[in-house]
Amino acid sequence: MKKKSTQMIVTLGLLVALHIILSRFLSVNAWNMKIGFAFVAVFVGAYLYGPIAGAVVGGLGDFLGAILFPIGAYFPGFTLNCALTGVVMGLLLYKKQSPLRVVLAVLIDQLVISMWITPLWISILYGSPYWPLIISRLPQIGIMVVVEIVVTLLMIKIMERIKAPQMMAENEAPVDALKEQRKAIRKASIAAREAISPEERPEKCAAIIAKIVDSEEYKSAKNILVYSAIRGEVSLDGLKEYADRDGKVLAYPLVISAKEMIALVPKTEDDWADGFHGIREPKKETCDEMKPEDIDLVICPCTAFDEDLGRMGMGAGYYDRYLETCGNAKIVAVAFECQKVDSVMRQEWDKPMEKVFSEKNVYSK
To answer: Which residues pair with 33 in a beta bridge?
Structure first.
């Protein structure tokens, strides 16, 4: 992020300089007419970073150009016009370019800003009649509409050719590297929890369950989604005794497709079967379904966690998708202390936990 911010600042600085050069040295000025290409710098800023960046390039470029290389009297209205051009280009052309959007952006720039607002500033600055100024600018408007549309379309093609390999270098490679790093974290954390001795495991699980039962999330919940442990996960089997005592209803996940799971409430041992990935799951035909909106507390398994309450699952995304539907539930996770890492490198779709319970600590915000 720091690298990208620095790159953006440097790029915008160069574009401001380009705007000054194009507007002050490579444009034709004749009274209230100006034929030039300063819009190119504004477009590039808006194309790369959006409307605010476009406004910065246009406004700052005009202001600094007027201070460093004055052409007539300075008037802030002209600076405002340049900033507005950047906003218009950013709103219409940032991440969503098309010929129609280009035409619309140019027409707004020329037929609104240049044709109607610029004469107003000239009229105020020099005391000239407003309507004659508009009429006198019509030739410039006609020329600039054509020039700006043609040049902007050409610039889009150039920018796409420049940006494509840059995006591959900056985005795709890190994504592959990040994927490998997360895979390594997942593998190491699973190995760590599986290495816990049979003698220590029940004690550690009991300590975690005790912390859950003592938590406000558990005490205030009626319907709780838990899970059946696999591959060394924290076993929550001991929680059922407390749930029965406290009048809680425990539901368990059932995977019903490659991307979907539901929550079911088993009542007897006959309601269980070996299901997807060999996980012990409740039978859909004999269990009642618990709707996501009725769940008060979700206790998630995890392969790794960090102190920022990031959770890493097995990588299939079942919980990430299901948690989006549990609008009324508190979301927590359980793990052994040996599964804590510096960072799980949480992705934008990974929902952070509200608490993580281990045998030693309760991690919270």
So the answer is: 30
